[in-house]
Design brief:
The chain is mainly α. It is built from 14 helices and no strands. Helix 3 crosses helix 11 and helix 6 packs across helix 7.
């Protein structure tokens, strides 16, 4: 019986001859061209800036401040983003409610929305709140307008505003990653836990959440890589004040605008290295999950 199954399996296996090898080579050629193109661009950046520029740029206090601001704001964004992504991803995965498809689509809206629109919308919201228009009562409209502007004074052109911009642009990536992870976890596992005495919350914290830890890690890394590199919203909402609101992407823009191409490329290489580490980590975690 086993011999018959083995024979049938061999008979059904497609034969890869010359035409199959030629087709595979043509497909892989596109992969090679794309990868070689990226490597040539990276090599051009490194060769143009030179090792001396790469070493010297990180001795500048302004670059050090920009790097530190980028790191702590993006790190805080990851923590806040995951605090939103875990419950939102679980709710969208497990529950169905009126307008579920619309809400699920709106979660992905910041992914396709031009980032510059996010910064402009934030600036308008906190400088000219829309609450004064009808049908809100006058007292409520005044109260909302007052507090929105008061909060805006602590965000506009302030380091805290960087976190808000990063969160709005990058949180959707974490939410989507966590939701897909919970989609892959069989709900019956939680149901079994509830039959053994767990509450719904207990089944979530003791069963679903530990099983989703790899997806949560991937979601956090995706949030960080996206938040670390945003530029447009920051220029509109917080500006690029040196030693205050200047992060690495704005440093690249400012340096190349005044002709310091070597410094701009050195900072760009640093961002490329950090982004590559993040992407490789995502791949390693994903493969281990499989």
């Amino acid at each position: 019986m086993n011999q018959q199954l083995f024979t049938n399996a061999r008979a059904s296996t497609p034969v890869s001859g010359f035409h199959g090898q030629l087709f595979a080579a043509s497909m892989l050629a596109f992969v090679g061209l794309f990868v070689v193109g990226l490597l040539l661009l990276l090599a051009a950046d490194v060769l143009y800036s030179g090792p001396d520029a790469l070493r010297g740029v990180f001795e500048l206090k302004r670059i050090q401040a920009s790097l530190w601001l980028s790191l702590w704001t993006s790190g805080l964004t990851v923590l806040i983003g995951l605090a939103l992504a875990v419950p939102m991803g679980y709710a969208l995965s497990r529950y169905r409610f009126p307008g579920h498809a619309l809400v699920d689509s709106m979660v992905d809206l910041p992914i396709i929305l031009p980032p510059l629109v996010v910064g402009l919308s934030l600036l308008v919201f906190f400088t000219e709140p829309p609450f004064r228009s009808p049908p809100l009562p006058g007292v409520l409209a005044y109260w909302l307008t007052y507090w929105t502007r008061a909060i805006g004074t602590h965000l506009i052109f302030q380091p805290k505003g960087i976190v808000l911009c990063q969160l709005l642009v990058s949180a959707s990536f974490g939410i989507r990653a966590v939701k897909l992870t919970f989609d892959g976890i069989d709900p019956r596992v939680e149901h079994v836990a509830m039959t053994l005495g767990c509450t719904r919350a207990g089944a979530f914290f003791r069963v679903a959440l530990p099983m989703a830890r790899r997806g949560i890690i991937v979601g956090g890394i995706l949030i960080w890589t996206r938040a670390f590199g945003i530029f447009g919203p920051l220029m509109v909402f917080v500006g690029a004040v040196s030693m205050r609101t200047e992060v690495l992407p704005t440093t690249i823009y400012l340096e190349q605008s005044v002709g310091n191409i070597e410094v701009a490329l050195a900072v760009a290489i640093l961002m490329i290295v950090l982004a590559t580490v993040g992407l490789v980590t995502v791949r390693i975690v994903g493969l281990r999950g499989k």
